[in-house]
Design brief:
about 350 residues; alpha+beta; D-Amino Acid Oxidase, Chain A, domain 2; FAD/NAD(P)-binding domain; 3 domains; 10-stranded mixed sheet; 10 helices; about 25% strand; binds flavin-adenine dinucleotide
């Protein structure tokens, strides 16, 4: 995969020396015994994610962008579908529902797709957010309505005080009783200042927003597994997202691989235009064991962590928020937060 320029995983080779410890730990986390334990540890988070979204969505009036339409993956051949056997076993062992589909069932679910897919895997209990921007805007407005203050400022550092934490912010120092570090891929350096050494890097990813053109209605996000891309019907167009690029957060973006996918996307969804209205890069904050860091710092009881949600940060945001709120308020957690400890690395 690493030598193929159109692979779903790409490495910027210059970054490899710095990435090596993370990469070794990532490979070790891929052993079957570990994968099972990791899947068990992710399960309470992912199973609670939808209800946590619904609660916040109802509170903030953003429930219109949360759509319970399921998640469809399509495969061009029976052989490539057979490659999902391990995934299916992991899901079945945990009671997660999925259906195996043939070509006609795929067509019934998504009539606007090209008729070239031999097999489908449909997860009916998944939901879809048609506008992450609208959702987070609505959460921010509701937070302020409830008395929260929203300030956007870079934090340069933090030091413990007798009764909390002092943040060194761009516009001066500020004292807090409790601080949540939720700075995505940039959290590692802030945690280091608290004395916690976490393994965190970034799996960079790209998307293109495309005008639908003459394409028929796409009803839900679809993964085209053989080519490693997703098409999703967002409020502002069809979104094409691609795989993973392992590189520094500071390296300039390289949109050429995702641009090369545009013809394949137009084959998958006939009628799709070639008019790209936005190009975007994001930085998935990833630990080598794919588990987030959630909970109180072992080093400083006034510091809480909420980062490292890799490919699932939008999904797991609300449930993580609820867990952190309970931790700060001194309430019992809904389930064991042990697997997400900051000192597990
Ligand atoms: C192509 C792509 C597709 C994805 N698809 C999905 C999906 O379908 N579902 C899903 O659940 N997730 C998805 N993700 C993953 C999701 O985007 C991330 O998991 C999520 O954004 C992580 O959220 P976060 O708030 O932890 O970090 P971020 O979104 O990276 O936010 C961190 C914030 O902290 C700020 N910050 C950093 N340092 C400082 C500092 N010193 N002071 C102040 N602020 C600071 C940054 O400016 C940033 O705003 C996708 C990611 C990509 C790249």
């Amino acid at each position: 995969m690493l030598s193929d320029r159109d692979s779903v995983v790409r490495v910027r080779w210059r970054y490899l020396p710095r990435l090596t410890p993370w990469l070794i730990s990532f490979l070790l986390a891929g052993r079957p015994g570990r994968v099972n334990a990791i899947a068990d540890a992710l399960l309470p988070l992912v199973s609670g994610a939808y209800n946590a979204h619904r609660e916040l969505g109802a509170l903030s009036g953003a429930d219109n962008v949360l759509r319970p339409v399921g998640w469809l993956k399509v495969y061009e051949t029976a052989a490539s579908f057979a490659g999902t056997q391990y995934d299916r076993e992991l899901m079945a062992a945990r009671g997660l529902r999925f259906d195996e589909l043939g070509p006609d069932e795929i067509h019934q679910l998504e009539p606007s797709l090209a008729r070239r897919y031999a097999k489908g895997l449909f997860q009916p209990d998944s939901a879809f957010i048609a506008s992450p921007h609208q959702l987070t805007q609505a959460f921010a407005v509701q937070f302020q309505r409830l008395g929260g203050n929203f300030a956007e400022e870079r934090v340069r550092g933090l030091q413990p005080t007798n009764d909390g934490v002092r943040l060194d912010c761009e516009l001066g120092f500020r004292n807090f009783d409790a601080v949540v570090i939720a700075a995505g891929a940039w959290s590692k350096e802030l945690a280091r200042q608290v004395g916690d050494r976490v393994m965190l890097d970034t799996e960079r990813g790209y998307h293109l927003n495309i005008e639908p053109g003459e394409a028929g209605d796409l009803r839900r996000p679809v993964l085209f597994a053989d080519r490693g891309f997703v098409l999703a019907p967002m409020l502002d167009g069809i979104r094409l997202t691609s795989g993973v690029e392992l590189a520094s957060v500071n390296a300039p973006p390289d949109f050429s691989p995702i641009r090369r996918l545009l013809p394949a996307a137009r084959e998958a969804l006939p009628g799709l235009s070639d008019r790209v209205t936005r190009e975007w890069i994001g930085y998935r904050p990833s630990t080598p064991d794919s588990l987030p860091v959630i909970g109180q710092s072992p080093r400083n009881p006034a510091v809480y962590y909420a980062f490292g949600h890799q490919h699932l940060g939008l999904t797991l945001g609300p449930i993580t928020g609820r867990l952190i709120a309970a931790a700060i308020a001194g309430r019992q957690p809904e389930f064991d937060l042990g697997p997400y400890r900051a000192d597990r690395f």
